């Protein structure tokens, strides 16, 4: 099928004739397959293929490319209206229920469309673009079709390029770990550091993790990256401990996908042993999704790591699904109040009330607390007033590379020892 499509693209490059690529995916097919069995699933797929064949013209191409995914090529229909019509016809093929030995079933289909040559003249790109359009349909409930929006092309192309480059970039040592201090505003001491990944791309410069972490999570390379961060963090911590520069806690972000291989415990244990660092000096930051019902299998791994001595923090607290009362039952030592609450803490009574509730509950359950994303002095002061003294944010320092962080820390400690009535001490004690 791919060779045929490649050929079609080549032919059309010489004398471009328009074609549309329809990426079709059955909605909720997995549920049918899982509940009624593969035999019924296969039977259904055959009926779907038969309905397609009965409707499509001889020169239209159709191929099944995955479990319940089909690609259809409609050649020569230059007008968008005609493609609209073809898509509506395909949707209507699913109006009548499908017969199986267990009775009649109604299923629906979603379609993403990309167009040659205006979206791309490369078949792989055309498929990816149609897939992006398909995802949009799925997000809004399925059973419809959508055209790829050419405006998104630059973003997606960049994403595809980055996806291909991540593994190579790991080998080329293009990733770096940066460090952001965590400060106790009562004592004005740096007690912790969060490790944050950066991609030093040879052509694009420094790429922020918000752009590449989701890609690394999607293609699985986050497992290698996560391991790299853990090793780098521990190596750096050892150096700072040996030179008496920093002896506090190093916090490392752990993606839910790092639980996939079941080797997280071994990785942490081995890295700590190799760098001769006590487990108590490491904190693993996980998001609430790690504790969702589907993922409850992750809790035992976190419990084992805590038994080893490592701390577990819940990141971006308040933005996910966990309710306040769940705090009691989660295997965690620390709660990180998300930046979005800190942003509005002075203006929004509701946000201040949520923060207050998180503070009271954490204290009741004996869980530590830190607020992140603090950008102003007045936010820091308000948090102190509410009873939250552990702070992280640009107000104190942005994340810095190891060399700059060391300079910042030395300076911070010097200023701190010199000024007895430092701002935070005065305001927060
Ligand atoms: P996060 O874990 O919530 O990390 C905090 C983010 O907020 C960091 O962005 C940090 O630079 C930023 N930040 C801290 N203080 C302030 C502030 O006062 N104002 C503003 N505007 N931002 C502040 P960064 O480094 O861009 O990281 C973004 C996200 O990428 C992280 O959010 C985390 O989810 C992910 N990430 C970063 N490094 C890693 C990693 O090593 N592994 C994994 N799995 N995810 C990582
Ligand atoms: Ca974090
Ligand atoms: Ca966070």
Largest sheet: 8 strands, mixed, barrel
Number of strands: 16
Classify the secondary structure makeup into a structural class: alpha/beta
The pLDDT mean sits at 90
State the end-to-end distance: 70 Å
Helicity level: 40-55%
Number of helices: 15
Strand content: 15-25%
Side by side, the strands of the main sheet go 8-9-11-12-13-14-15-16
What is the multimeric organization of the chains shown?
single chain
* Unique bound compounds: ligand C2E, calcium ion
Q: Could you say which overall geometry the principal axes of the C-alpha atoms support?
A: elongated
Which parts are unreliable, with pLDDT below 50 for 5 consecutive residues or more? none
Describe the structure.
The chain has 429 residues and is an alpha/beta fold. It has 15 helices and 16 strands. It has helices at 2-14, 29-36, 38-55, 80-92, 123-139, 153-171, 209-219, 222-242, 264-275, 298-308, 339-343, 349-365, 377-386, 402-418, 423-428; strands at residues 19-26, 61-66, 69-75, 98-100, 103-105, 109-116, 145-147, 175-184, 189-201, 205-207, 249-253, 282-287, 311-317, 334-337, 368-372, 390-392. An 8-stranded mixed β-barrel has the order 8-9-11-12-13-14-15-16, surrounded by 4 helices. Strand 6, helix 5 and strand 7 form a beta-alpha-beta unit. Helix 2 crosses helix 3 (38-55) and helix 6 (153-171) packs across helix 7 (209-219). The longest helix is centred in the middle third of the chain and has 21 residues, at 222-242. Bound molecules: ligand C2E and calcium ion (2 copies).
């Amino acid at each position: 099928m791919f060779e045929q499509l490649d050929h079609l693209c080549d032919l059309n490059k010489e004398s471009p004739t328009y074609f549309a690529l329809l990426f079709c995916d059955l909605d909720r097919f997995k549920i049918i397959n899982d509940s009624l069995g593969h035999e019924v699933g296969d039977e259904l797929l055959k009926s779907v293929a038969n309905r397609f064949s009965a409707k499509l013209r001889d020169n239209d191409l159709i191929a099944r490319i995955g479990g319940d995914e089909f690609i259809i090529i409609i050649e020569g229909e230059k007008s968008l209206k005609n493609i609209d019509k073809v898509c509506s016809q395909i949707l209507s093929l699913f109006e009548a229920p499908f017969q199986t030995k267990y009775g009649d079933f109604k299923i629906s289909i979603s379609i993403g469309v990309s167009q040659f040559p205006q979206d791309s003249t490369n078949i792989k790109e055309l498929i990816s673009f149609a897939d992006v359009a398909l995802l949009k349909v799925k997000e809004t409930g399925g059973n419809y079709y959508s055209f790829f929006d050419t405006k998104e092309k630059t973003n997606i192309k960049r994403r595809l390029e980055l996806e291909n480059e991540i593994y190579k970039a790991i080998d080329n040592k293009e990733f770096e770990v940066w460090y952001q201090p965590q400060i106790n505003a009562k004592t004005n001491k740096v007690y912790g550091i969060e490790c944050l990944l950066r991609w030093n791309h040879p052509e694009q410069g420094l790429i922020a993790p918000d752009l590449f972490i989701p890609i690394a999570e999607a293609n699985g390379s986050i497992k290698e990256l996560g391991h790299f961060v853990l090793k780098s963090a521990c190596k750096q911590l050892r150096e700072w401990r040996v030179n008496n520069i920093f002896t506090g806690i190093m916090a490392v972000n752990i993606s839910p996908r790092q639980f996939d291989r079941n080797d997280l415990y071994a990785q942490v244990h081995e890295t700590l042993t190799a760098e001769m660092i006590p487990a108590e000096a490491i904190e693993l930051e996980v998001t609430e999704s790690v504790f969702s019902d589907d993922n409850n299998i992750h809790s035992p791994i976190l419990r084992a790591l805590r038994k080893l001595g490592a701390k577990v923090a819940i990141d971006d607290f308040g933005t996910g699904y966990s309710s306040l009362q769940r705090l009691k039952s989660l295997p965690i030592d620390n709660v990180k109040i998300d930046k979005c609450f800190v942003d509005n803490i002075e203006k929004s009574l509701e946000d201040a009330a949520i923060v207050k509730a998180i503070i009271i509950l954490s204290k009741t359950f004996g869980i530590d607390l830190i607020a992140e994303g603090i950008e102003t002095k007045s936010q820091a002061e308000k948090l102190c007033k509410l009873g939250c003294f552990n702070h992280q944010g640009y107000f104190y320092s942005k994340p810095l590379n190891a060399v700059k962080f060391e300079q910042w820390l030395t300076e911070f400690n010097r200023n701190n020892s010199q000024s007895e009535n430092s701002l935070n001490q005065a305001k927060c004690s």
